[in-house]
Amino acid sequence: MSNGNKHLTTGNGAPVGDNQNSMTAGSRGPTLIQDVHLLEKLAHFNRERVPERVVHAKGAGAHGYFEVSNDMSQYTKAKLFNGVGKRTPMFIRFSTVAGELGSADTVRDPRGFAVKFYTEEGNYDLVGNNTPIFFIRDAIKFPDFIHTQKRDPKTHLKNPTAVWDFWSLSPESLHQVTYLMGDRGLPATLRHMNGYGSHTFKWVNEDGEAVWVKYHFMAEQGVKNMSPDVAGKLAGDNPDYHTEDLFNAIENGDFPAWKLHVQIMPFEDANTYRFDPFDVTKVWSHKDYPLIEVGRMVLDRNPENYFAEVEQATFSPGTMVPGVEASPDKMLQGRIFAYADAHRYRVGTNHNLLPINRPKAEVNNYQRDGSMRSDQNGGGSAYYEPNSFGGPKEAPEYKQTAFQVTGVAEQAAYDQDDHYTQAGDLYRLMTEEERSRLVATIVGAMKPVEREDIKLRQIQHFYKADPEYGERIAKGLNLAIPQEVK
Ligand code: HDE
């Protein structure tokens, strides 16, 4: 070991004699192809980027733990929610939605709030946002919706006409549009925002009894938002402001924490509740289903390496543990396919073998081979099932809970189309200052829309949510409320 440092080596572990000079034929001769160290450095450098996430590309992550403060075993057998004091390690990744990997943190956008619990029964991923709802409620519309949030294929610029054309033709988006254009569309930091599972999920207890559940992570630091002009300035001065804030807070021992609460809906209520509980554009009134405290999530460790732990992290709503099951929410159903598919494409077939994704629980299955199979690939153990050689067998007690399905197979729309009550309730919940900021933001966002018919169609939705809401936007855009909607 020269002067106490480790040898510099090639990727194959061979010591490198010279990292300053390429090998040439004579001091001024051509570079020799036999300079393997040079070739390897250049070739690996060309391959450093993996595809960024198609949405939620810009993000920041942290490690921590979840600790139960209120035993949930009456509702779910999921061990991470059972027993006061039960502690489970977890990893979270926060993110914006529409921007690319190098885009600014302080843009108006929902924020991803993706939590991976490394439970003793396998990983559990709760892949939510900082909003309890979403713009659409059928997965089939997601690629189109995201196209309008990304760059125009011709100009390569953001296109407000596309954004508002899609939203004005998809009235189910009104609730989340109101949320996004309000103060919570610009969180002051990643620490000062709440997180939500957004969807309805199913919890099942040891007796096989099921309830419906919605998750709410309430920031102990409180919710704080940023004014549009500060957000705009930061987007230029320090595009990584949120990333830096989270890293420094944890580095300085100022560990952010969230109180996890749930809303519990009795299984049968789903058939009679006044809103479709599986429609992710709608919330459940807290009066109807009050928040119940479950535990506390604390972030107390920064990643050692961003690429290894944040860029390569793979979350999926389909990654569930016994006691947690899917609801028929069409968005959740679509996501259960899409995420694991995205991971196999973006990170690789064996993404679950990477340290950040690898479960703490033992993995025993017959999945073999595939690119970058970095473990023992099952060694010489049984590689098919059923088998007579003691290979792992299924455990019937962990079967998913059977449930009734009714109706005919068809491409059916949701039964309920009231997209205005809850959006109007949200507007009416706001203070006058919040409403003024909301109106100013929407007017500013809609002004560049090229087509007046799109503006008028969207104004009708605001008006149906609340006449004052619609009138204030129309006034800001110097347009009259269409007679047909009055
Ligand atoms: Fe995502 N979403 N999403 N999404 N989403 C992805 O996964 C998708 C939706 C969310 O930090 C992708 O690895 C579909 C709702 C977060 O790694 C992709 C639909 C909510 C993250 C994908 C939705 C989310 C993603 C992009 C409609 C909140 C970042 C690459 C059915 C409840 C997770 C990737 C992380 C990432 C698909 C809608 C949140 C493409 C098909 C609703 C927080 O798989």
TrEMBL record:
Keyword Transcription: no
GO molecular function terms attached to this record: catalase activity
EC number from the UniProt entry: 1.11.1.6
Keyword RNA-binding applies: no
Top-rank EC class of the record's enzyme: oxidoreductase
SMART domains in UniProt: Catalase
InterPro entries reported in the protein's UniProt record: Catalase (IPR018028), Catalase_3 (IPR040333), Catalase_AS (IPR024708), Catalase_clade1/3 (IPR024711), Catalase_core (IPR011614), Catalase_haem_BS (IPR002226), Catalase_immune_responsive (IPR010582), Catalase_sf (IPR020835)
Region (Disordered): 1-29, 368-393
Keyword vocabulary terms for this entry: Heme, Hydrogen peroxide, Iron, Metal-binding, Oxidoreductase, Peroxidase
PANTHER family per the UniProt record, alphabetical: CATALASE
Homology family: Belongs to the catalase family.
Entry protein name: Catalase
Organism whose genome encodes this protein: Bacillus salipaludis
